[in-house]
């Protein structure tokens, strides 16, 4: 009797709580794909060059924008046979004077049969022989990069030590490089079967654009079309100069330029007039062809935030926006959040569209993790100024092969606003409109879908509200409700009644069990 009573109680409790568990799982399903390609990205050192960390971050973000899951760690951390489950290996050498001492790694990379990619000096001799190429060591004070495919070039004045490909053999080649004090051109990227080699990578300008194509080709995505980038203004907050935001919005709208803002959310003081002003400003952005990313909160000290607090704040911010007719197309966050075991589940599972912002100088982690999540739609955020030295020979090819967002800070003064507008307007570009693609954001309270400019909240079509009342209230019900809404409400009522009934029955069962046990003890 005791066993059966326990099983019945367990079953009833499971039935009572299962709906809540399934809701949490459903929210996580937005960003998970078991069939995604998995890449191991390893490096020797991050301290020898000033742009080593930025190099690693942009490589990872380009891979994420190509729909790949990435695991990142140092070569020293590699364990025997770790490569086995991965679909590809990328080896980045930042410090050419350091010797790779991990024998497990040295052995496994030679016999690894899948995709292999080397970046930097000291290409493994086994890989070089397999490719059939010859290298030439070059030290120079300037390098030029040219891409016939993108009809773009750039000259960089910087000291460079590299091993250029002097003879590419039968390899496929992409783009070319030349040096200030060395005659002739050299191929930049060379491909042979499953192996790819590039002598260096500068994470900006033409080199960034070329790297997108190199990685896409290496992964078997060579036919991707050249697309327009997003133009995004980051760090828009309730304490920003909202009148400045309105002026900038008007200027961009008059110039016919699509753009987006990365705006932080609200999770307290929601009934203040400042919250209303903020909502109105964001609605004016949306009304004038602007799009919105919800930017994750600033984390100043991980020790002061408890587990679950970030998720609660994200839920509150998204619900508040949605219930007041501000419809984020996705979530934006610093790229390093992809490597935090607490930030990932608490902030990065709400939307299938993500903007990977450039990292801050000193990232703050709760708990580091090596593996990123798979993101259905990931935009690589990179500074708009990173392309100021690029010379484009044709307007048609002025674009990017993977989803890219050119980032500018929100202007704080009229001088900064004038400078920002000059950057955008002086060199004509075509920018993508985020609202023309599909996006899905889900909280425990609401299901937001944007489908080719049409907005749906919980299955109901919505429109941009241009003015919010001073006292924010939840979204009003539409005067005419569909039968689907009627049955949805009816189902919720029945679910509540059933749960209450099951809870009462569980109490009766537990009480009956103890009374029965007490009776026979006598």
TrEMBL record:
Segments spanning the bilayer are 493-516
The protein's name: DUF2334 domain-containing protein
Q: Which UniProt keywords apply?
A: Membrane, Signal, Transmembrane, Transmembrane helix
As given in the record, the signal peptide range reads 1-27
């Amino acid at each position: 009797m005791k066993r059966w009573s326990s099983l019945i109680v367990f079953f009833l409790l499971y039935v009572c709580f299962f709906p809540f568990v399934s809701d949490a799982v459903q929210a996580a399903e937005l960003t998970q794909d078991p069939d995604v390609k998995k890449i191991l990205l390893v490096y020797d050192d991050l301290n020898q060059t000033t742009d080593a960390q930025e190099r690693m971050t942009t490589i990872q973000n380009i891979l994420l924008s190509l729909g790949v899951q990435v695991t990142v760690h140092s070569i020293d951390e590699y364990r025997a046979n770790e490569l086995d489950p991965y679909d590809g290996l990328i080896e980045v050498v930042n410090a050419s004077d350091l010797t790779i001492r991990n024998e497990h790694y040295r052995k496994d990379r030679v016999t690894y049969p899948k995709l292999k990619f080397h970046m930097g000096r000291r290409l493994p001799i086994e890989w070089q022989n397999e490719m059939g190429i010859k290298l030439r060591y070059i030290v120079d004070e300037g390098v030029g990069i040219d891409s016939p495919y993108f009809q773009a070039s750039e000259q960089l004045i910087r000291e460079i030590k590299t091993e250029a490909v002097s003879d590419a053999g039968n390899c496929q080649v992409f783009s070319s490089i030349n040096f200030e004090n060395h005659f002739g051109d050299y191929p930049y990227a060379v491909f042979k079967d499953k192996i790819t080699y590039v002598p260096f990578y500068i994470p900006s300008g033409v080199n960034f654009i070329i790297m997108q194509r190199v990685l896409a080709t290496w992964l078997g995505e060579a036919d991707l079309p050249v697309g327009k980038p997003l133009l995004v203004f980051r760090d828009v907050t309730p304490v920003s100069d909202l009148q400045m935001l309105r002026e900038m919005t008007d200027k961009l709208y008059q110039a016919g330029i699509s753009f987006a803002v990365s705006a932080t959310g609200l999770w307290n003081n929601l009934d203040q007039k400042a919250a209303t002003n903020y909502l109105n400003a964001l609605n004016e952005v949306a009304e004038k062809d602007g799009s919105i990313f919800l930017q994750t909160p600033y984390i100043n000290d991980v020790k002061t935030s408890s587990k679950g607090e970030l998720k609660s704040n994200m839920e509150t911010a998204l619900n508040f926006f949605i219930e007041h007719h501000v419809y984020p197309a996705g979530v934006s966050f610093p790229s390093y959040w992809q490597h935090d075991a607490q930030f990932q589940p608490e902030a990065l599972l709400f939307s299938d569209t993500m903007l990977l912002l450039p990292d801050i100088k000193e990232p703050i982690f709760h708990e580091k993790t090596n593996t990123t999540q798979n993101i259905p739609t990931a935009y690589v955020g990179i500074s708009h100024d990173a392309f100021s030295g690029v010379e484009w020979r044709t307007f048609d090819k002025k674009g990017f092969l993977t989803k890219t967002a050119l980032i500018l800070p929100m202007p704080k003064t009229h001088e900064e606003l004038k400078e920002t507008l000059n950057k955008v307007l002086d060199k004509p570009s075509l920018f993508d409109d985020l609202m023309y693609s599909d996006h899905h954001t889900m909280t425990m309270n609401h299901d937001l879908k944007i489908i080719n400019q049409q907005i749906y909240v919980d299955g109901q079509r919505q429109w941009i509200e241009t003015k919010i009342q001073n006292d924010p209230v939840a979204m009003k019900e539409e005067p005419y409700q569909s039968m689907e809404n009627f049955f949805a409400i009816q189902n919720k009522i029945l679910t509540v009644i059933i749960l209450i009934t099951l809870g009462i029955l569980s109490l009766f069962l537990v009480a009956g069990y103890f009374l029965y046990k007490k009776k026979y003890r006598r």
